[in-house]
Every structure is written in structure tokens, then in C-alpha cells.
Automatic annotation (TrEMBL):
This is Uncharacterized protein. It comes from the Eukaryota.
Amino acid sequence: MVEPQHPLLSLCSRLQQPLLQLPPAPRASLLRVPTSRISSVRRLGFTAADPLLSLHVASRIRSIKGKATRGVVSMAKKSVGDLTGADLKGKKVFVRADLNVPLDDTQKITDDTRIRAAIPTIKHLIQNGAKVILSSHLGRPKGVTPKFSLAPLVPRLSELLGIQVVKADDCIGPEVEKLVASLPEGGVLLLENVRFYKEEEKNEPEFAKKLASLADLYVNDAFGTAHRAHASTEGVTKFLKPSVAGFLLQKELDYLVGAVSSPKRPFAAIVGGSKVSSKIGVIESLLEKCDILLLGGGMIFTFYKAQGLSVGSSLVEEDKLDLATSLLKKAKAKGVSLLLPTDVVIADKFAPDANSKIVPASAIPDGWMGLDIGPDSIKTFNEALGTTKTVIWNGPMGVFEFDKFAVGTEAVAKKLAELSGQGVTTIIGGGDSVAAVEKVGVAEVMSHISTGGGASLELLEGKELPGVVALDEAVPVAV
């Protein structure tokens, strides 16, 4: 009896257009589920651990998010969930959160996502009788800058926590120390913007020591800044023990490390954005792990030109043509089905009201620029995604800020929402992809949406995150 062909192979067999996409790998290499194809995550301080710890991590995430947990790998770093009530009751806990929310001209919060994401960890601490000293940055102030004060965050924080949050006018000094001393069990003190001090970003030990002197132990829940070795993310860990991960940081790492290191297969990665140069590390890293790689955004024109195609006035990084060629060769050698768009939406200028038309990727006329992927590409991408069990997405398919050129990006968001409902693990890896799923209104159904842009990218590239490395290990990790 002839064995039926896997739908992914069937799809790939219809996609063999040598200039625009690589032919699929043989069945054995494309659909294998290897036991050893797990990237090294020891440098990040994570490893597969015993089943009991895995269950503990999964139950913690379910209690916070209320969603099924898939593709989770447990952490080798100590978590706030590992601390008992006895560890926390009456203790002063320095919590570094990422409350860097957008404010309008009247200092009103326009998106409270990051505040809401910080709540589970804070609530856990106050419910266990801890005294929470909350620290964050906001914006990029140069010294004390009133418009970057954290004061506008107090009402929303208090509302979400169900208690009145006290606000300090500084983050160190005698007045702050008095407020800390008067803090009751279960109370929360919000320190002023830690970046009002230049010593924060310079990670000066004396400044870190002053921050640490306020507390008994440390919790880092600021994934968005975990890739920075700042005083409040890395420096304080030298003076406070234990130093542990908060629930949000834990969840980010469980998904971005766990699901990517040991995904349910087939595993697809969607990478977009304007430039190849900004995504080189991500693409190279994902080529080691994924079965299907879909490319979109402005970077595709560098790949087209590298294959000898005319790209009109589209964005091209001339110094990355050889790199694009090498990435295509690497995908083929690795048995990864790399799909480039076969048609594009082109415009006569870079503007929301530009004249536009759809052309094959091989027929972009002079004077026109590509600003989105076309309908045939959307159909092909959707079919490829329909075969998957795990998908990670980083970067838009086009200039989605302009409605006319947002169709491709929005189509990907809708497809991932559909797949989420079918049990596929869908991970939105930070940045513009998050804005896209929010715009389409499907954010809530995704398996995981990362709160960190730069941190997400660096983690996907396999880089160490100083704010994570500095935390206490839960179990010894063999070197």
C-alpha cells in the first residue's frame, strides 16, 4: 500500500520555483522528530529538569494566565514560586518590573499591558505578607525629567492590586528609607524612575548597593530589560540573596527557550521586518531549529536581488547580498523549507495614499517599491502554517502602519489565531508583531506574547541575558 503523503510535503511539492524559494528537503529530513535536536540552553542557565519541577512551572503559568501550557521547559533558575510563605512574610522584597508604559500628552496611560503583566508576581508577594519595593524605568530620561516620572502609574497599579500603592519621590536616600521602614506587610512602595540616575545604566556598584540596602531579597520580573546589565537588573544581585525570577520572566523564558529548544513539530518560524541585518542572528539561530522558515517584510528584497531579480526602488541592503545567498544555501543544507513571497504589493511611493498594484516577485518594475506580500503568498504561507504544531513570529510582513499595506501582516495574525484554537503553540516574539496581533484583536488567543522586544530577539539568537544569568540557580547545572 502506498503511504499517503504528508500535507507539508504535498504543499512543498507545489512550491518549487527555484528563484523564489528553495525546494523542500526529503521527507526523512523535513519531518523527523529528533531526540537530540535540542539547542544548548545551558549558557542561559536553563535545562530540562525533573518532571515534578516541570509540573510546578506549568501549574504556575496556568494559574497566572488561565491557558493551557504547551512546549514548556522548566527553569534551572530559582523562581518566586519556589519561595514559601515563611521565606516571604515580613521580608522586604526589591522587585524590578518593566512598567515602561506609553503615556499621552496628558500623562495618561495609553496601554497598560506591562502593568497588568507585572501584577501576578506582586500579588503573590503581598498575599504572602511581603513588603514590596517596586522599581522600574520609564522612557529614556537624561537626569531627573518630570515627564518620565512613575507617578501616573500609581492609580492603575493601585486599582489592579486592590490596595493603595505608596509612591516615593526618589529611588534611594533617607526619605525612601523612611517609607520602606513604615511599609506594612502586604504593602507596596513604588520607587521613582531608576533611570533618573545615570549610575543605573552604568551599573555602578555603589548605586546598586544603595538600591539593594532597601531590601532583604530580590525578584527580577522585568524581561524587557533582562538583556541589559544595569544596576537594578544585575548589580543588585551581588548584594541580595536570594535573587529569583518573577512569574512573568519565568513564563517568557519557558516559552522562548522551551518551545523553541524542544518544539512540537513541524516547527515554523516567521521572520519579517525591514532589514536582514537586524535579524541575521535570529534567522541563523532559527535555521538550526525550525522545519519551515517564512520570510517577509523589507528584508525579502535583499534576498530577491541576491538571486538576480529586479527589485525596482525597494529597500535593499547591498552589503548583505552575499549573506542572503549564504542563508539560502544554509537552509537547503539544513533541510529547512525556506519560503519567500511569490508575489508582492508594490507602490509608486512610500506613503499611505500611494498608488499600488500586485505583481509577481520576479516582475517589480523600475521606480516601484514593494511594501507588502501579495495574496498568493498569503495563501501559500497559510497552507504551510496549517501543517505546523509550533509557530514563532517576529516581524511584520509589510509596512503595516499603512492600512493599504497591512494586509499580509494582518493575515498572518489571523492565521495564527486560528491555529491557536486548534492547539498549535503560537509565540509572538516581541516588537511589531505584538502590535500587529493587538491591532487585529487576536492577542488574547495566542499561546504567548512576549513583553520584550530586544530581549526577545537576543534570547532567540541564543545570547545570554545578564539579568537572567545573575539570578540564583534552583538546581545545579552540569557544565
